[in-house]
Design brief:
- Helices cover 36% and strands 24% of the residues.
- It has helices spanning 45-50, 54-66, 97-101, 108-127, 180-183, 190-207, 217-226, 237-246, 257-260, 264-267, 295-308, 359-374, 385-408; strands at residues 7-8, 12-20, 25-31, 37-44, 75-80, 84-90, 95-96, 130-131, 140-142, 148-150, 157-158, 286-291, 311-317, 320-329, 332-344, 347-356, 380-381.
- It has a six-stranded antiparallel β-sheet. A six-stranded antiparallel β-sheet has the order 13-14-15-16-12-17.
- Its EC number is 2.7.11.1.
- This is non-specific serine/threonine protein kinase.
- Residues 12-266 form the Protein kinase domain.
- It comes from Abrus precatorius.
């Protein structure tokens, strides 16, 4: 949080504390430009550098870039200043699923809806080589339409995290939801571990309590390893059968998501669609990109581009370059600011914006000249993420239609 003002970087009005994530506090905020509600995770730079967690922050950004799905909390943009890193994310007005479960078991149709959306989200993550590794009701949020949103990818892993044996080896997760093979510390399949956690969540939704709980941690681990499942008498028989396969202590025998989808109980009822919140359009204001290169290389590249485009470097101070056209345009001299914000020494955010002159002239030079020239140093343009979201949603709709056609044939 910024001490002098509740307006963050002239873009977001910060509000109440929503909760604590893996690496920082999460606040409610509202866009000063579009009035859109968002959630902002505030991360202390010094803390992550001291504790060696910079790589994990990078991984969380990478994961949220590829995990763009209607049932996953979306990362809209990343910002930074000298002391803090800010993740601007989708705001889930309904709060944590945990708050609902804490009041007792859910109705079967409600639990079914949440479980189906959870499986859809987790399956999408796995298809993109992402393993969440901390699935639990506290990390599942609800939007104002009651749709499920998986959140907090701070402990997640990407497929390239696997060792030569093809397994993950970092033990993580919440004890009551963690798979037995993770506890044993002998390597585990991220897909199978997530399926176990989804099984625990399903049990909790329908029962209102944990299947293998014990106040003594060692005794709870013993129960998890034995996985002696006792379903309450109100559970449908097919759900008990499904849970026994999801909570099989042997990961080699554990059910796959494709087989979960074959269960009649899973497929009953309509396919629930979730509406994606609109992401603000930055077309006429500024453009932001992230880079995995040092600031010195980024500055050098910007200087080269200025020379190629015959732009005058009017000012260069503390990560800010002010570029100007030599000739006066329709609305005065076009001035462009390029400001670099350090997230870590090898991860930077760069904001390119018009500070004076004609907007159309600025857009033309940005899209036709500056963006193509920067492509070898850009990791991702944040303004492109909305397009990626739309494409992902369109593909999901096509997949749903094909699935319905196959089930009817």
């Amino acid at each position: 949080m910024e001490s002098n003002s509740n307006v963050l970087m002239q873009r977001y009005e910060l509000g109440r504390l929503l909760g604590q994530g893996t690496f920082g506090k999460v606040y409610y905020a509202r866009s000063a430009i579009t009035n859109q509600s968002v959630a902002i995770k505030v991360i202390d730079k010094d803390k992550i550098m001291r504790t060696g967690q910079a790589a994990q922050i990078m991984r969380e950004i990478s994961v949220m870039r590829v995990a763009r799905h209607p049932n996953i909390i979306q990362l809209f943009e990343v910002m930074a200043n000298k002391k803090k890193i800010y993740f601007v994310m989708e705001y889930a007005k309904g709060g944590e699923l945990f708050n609902k479960v804490a009041k007792g078991k859910l109705k079967e149709e409600v639990a079914h809806k949440y479980f189906k959306q959870l499986i859809n989200a987790v399956d999408f993550c796995h298809s993109r080589g992402v393993y969440h590794r901390d699935i639990k009701p506290e990390n599942i949020l609800l939007d104002d339409n009651g749709n499920l949103k998986v959140s907090d990818f701070g402990l997640s892993a990407l497929a390239d995290s696997k060792r030569q044996d093809g397994l993950l080896h970092t033990p993580c997760g919440t004890p009551a939801y963690v798979a037995p093979e993770v506890i044993k510390r002998k390597g585990y399949d991220g897909v199978k571990a997530d399926i176990w956690s989804c099984g625990i969540v399903l049990f909790v939704l329908l029962a209102g309590y944990l299947p293998f709980h014990d106040p003594n941690l060692i005794e709870m681990y013993r129960k998890i390893n034995k996985a002696e499942l006792k379903c309450p008498n109100w559970f449908p028989a097919e759900v008990c059968q499904l849970l026994s396969k999801m909570l099989d202590p042997n990961p080699d025998n554990r059910i796959s998501i494709s087989n979960i989808r074959e269960y009649c109980w899973f497929n009953k009822g309509p396919n629930v669609k979730s509406k994606r919140p609109e992401v603000e359009n930055n077309t006429k204001r500024e453009a932001r990109f992230s880079s995995r290169l040092p600031a010195s290389i980024i500055i050098s590249k910007l200087e080269d581009i200025a020379k190629q485009l015959k732009l005058k470097i009017r000012k260069k101070v503390a990560g800010l370059l002010k570029l100007e056209r030599l000739n006066e345009g329709r609305k005065g001299v076009l001035s462009i600011d390029a400001e670099i914000f350090e997230v870590t020494p090898f991860f930077h955010l760069v904001e390119v914006k018009k500070s004076n002159g004609d907007t159309l002239e600025y857009q033309k030079i940005l899209n036709e000249d500056i963006r193509p020239a920067l492509q070898d140093i850009v990791w991702v343009w944040q303004s492109d993420q909305q397009l990626q979201s739309q494409q992902s949603e369109q593909q999901l709709q096509i997949d749903d239609q094909q699935e319905q056609q196959q089930s009817q044939s």
